């Protein structure tokens, strides 16, 4: 079910993806528990579906919940936690909270570089996003979008 939901998400079939993702979350919560890594992955997938649709507030709620649980259960520097951190930063950017997004992405870049290495694709991706956001933000004449 999770794979089919992912296929729907990749095809932009948001409603179908969302429906399946909710089912997967509920099933995993029942069978594995709310804090299980697979449950958290399902919640992050639903948050991604929301962010892909510009449903930033809903995405933020889920990403924050998943990140806090992942930090507690897996650790702040676990690759899964860092993926959520990266996605939450993008969500804050989507909400127009540029300064917060930049600060969170700075943390993500530092962790990913230390844990995964500077040349890892995830490290590079976060670094490029951070550089672009900083350049964009510095071009706003000191305005802060919060």
TrEMBL record:
It comes from the Eukaryota. This is Uncharacterized protein. It comes from Neophaeococcomyces mojaviensis.
